[in-house]
Amino acid sequence: MTDNHYKELLSKRYVCTIANKCGYTINEPENDYGEDLTINEVRTYTKTSGETGHAPTGKNICVQLKATIWDPDFNTSGVVKYDLDADTYNMLVDRSKNNRPLLLVLFFLPAEKENWVEQNDEELKIRKLAFYYLPEGSATLTTNLSTKRILIPVGDKISEYTLKNLMNEMN
Known about the structure:
Blueprint: H1 3-21, E1 25-27, E2 37-46, E3 52-69, E4 75-76, E5 79-85, H2 86-96, E6 102-109, E7 117-119, E8 124-126, E9 129-133, E10 147-153, H3 160-169
Parallel strand pairs: 3-6
Antiparallel strand pairs: 1-2, 2-3, 4-5, 5-10, 6-9, 7-8
């Protein structure tokens, strides 16, 4: 397995683990048209038998994942700076203008590969952290051919709390 495949899989598992902790389900599209995951909200209800049932609410978050090695130069003055592929940026902007916004999740790993995952009899750790990005409503498509620098506030970290808030805000 290449390092890039490994990074991609770790980013998926990181996000899926947090989403599952929220009680959400995950779908991975069969074809990749820019969406890597769909996070779905699930509600509980009481069946006629008295048992608890589960059903999708229709609320979801479509996610584009990126994984890279953390560089301390990314975080300056309270924002994470990242040079995103221009086509990916334009897709995010385009999707933000319709009823299906696409959430970018940027997953950062430690520089040393041996620190990406740690497992022992007590726990499994996936390091390091992930941030989310949605273009502002006033964002416009870039004419850049290569990359577009995005700025992500350091407080926009993926967590159980932020996923729940994003699920409500994006639906």
